[in-house]
Amino acid sequence: MADLSNLDLIFVFAYFIVLILIGYFSSRKQKEEDYLIAERKLGTLSTMMTLNASKTGSILMLFVAMVYLWGISALWYFIGAATGLMIFVPFALKLKEESKTKYYTLADYFRYNYGETIALIASFITIFIMFGFLVINLIAGTKIFVFFTGWPFWICAGIMIVVVLSYILMAGFKAVVKTDVLQYIAIIIILAFLAFILFDGSLIPASEWNFFNAELSTIIGFFMIGLLMPFASPEIWQRVYSSKGKKELRNGMILSVIIYTCVAFLLALVALTVKIQFPDLDPDLALIYGFANLLPGGLLGLSVILLFAAIMSTIDTYIFAGSSAIVQDFFNYNRKKTVSYIKKTIFLFTVLAAIVAVLIQDLVIGGYIFVSIVVVLAICVLATWIKKNIKQRTLLFELVIGVIGLMTYMIISLSKGQIQPTIVIVALGSSIIGLIIGGIVSYLKDNFWVKRSDKIERR
To answer: Are 362 and 407 spatial neighbours (Cβ–Cβ below 8 Å)?
Structure first.
């Protein structure tokens, strides 16, 4: 544990107050469409910042933890993420063209194109994803608070929840976007400053720069997680819907890739520096321990604000995306009633996630469990992009078999007490098998069983 000075604590709580004030002023004279999707008026810079802020969060601590376990090979996640986002751009532009004013959630895409059944299954999966990522980020943020204050885990989790709920209940998605912009500016400036202070190339041996240090299956797992993530991330889809136009969306996403890559490089320098200095740390706490012990006096509070900016800009995103999906995907209310029910759901969704976070308290294992389900949904989305007229039945088989295969592997792994990044390969394999089986069943149904039934009827 590292004690924050009174001045550090003042800075941290002042930062919390600023977030609450942003929520208050954003809520004044606000319309329902502001609360739900920020009136679909995000420009290039705001699109870039809110995209990246929503993807940063616990990845700061999680990436450093992965560097401890697999070295610089963990950077394959960021390589995959940058590649995936670039591949996602043309799909996002197509999605933006389709969405107009009718899409609010990821499941809406399936509802308007492939029917209610697929939409509801996709919604269940996205809610699980958002809930899981919310839990992971709550664990990360709370561990930061516990480390620097020594307060009980549940108290630290409670303070974070109160702050986030304060502004998100007042202004919804509009507050999410505005706080994202502020927090991402803080993340870039502070991370660059801290990386410059911490990094000393002479301390990092050449062996640590081996990108293929981990096993090939682990590298593939890292890369595939990053590559497929955009296609199954409801928070990214919301940014697509909320952008002003296709031009702003395209430029914002390209700029997002460039900035995200730079942030990944800076974080890699920080992670390697901490690993070399303190090789035997708990991976979950490596980043904050490194900040506490390597930064000169007076900069500790700055590093804490960086971490909270990253975590909280992601927490609010997952809270809103998950709660919106629960209300908008399963109920057909008017906008005013939708906003009212989303606010109630936000409170319950967040409290439940906090309880789970207090029970789990393990960042890396939680990351594997919740990230792997992304692959199943991403394959479903990619299948619809590759073949627009794909049968609903085919998608149903992909989702069901993908989830069953993943859950089976997860149960077996947990019984052995260990989950590895290769869980992503299992999710990918079972999803593809489900897609193939679904395609075969659909083909037989349309070309064999139907014809046979026609012959029977004619007889």
So the answer is: no
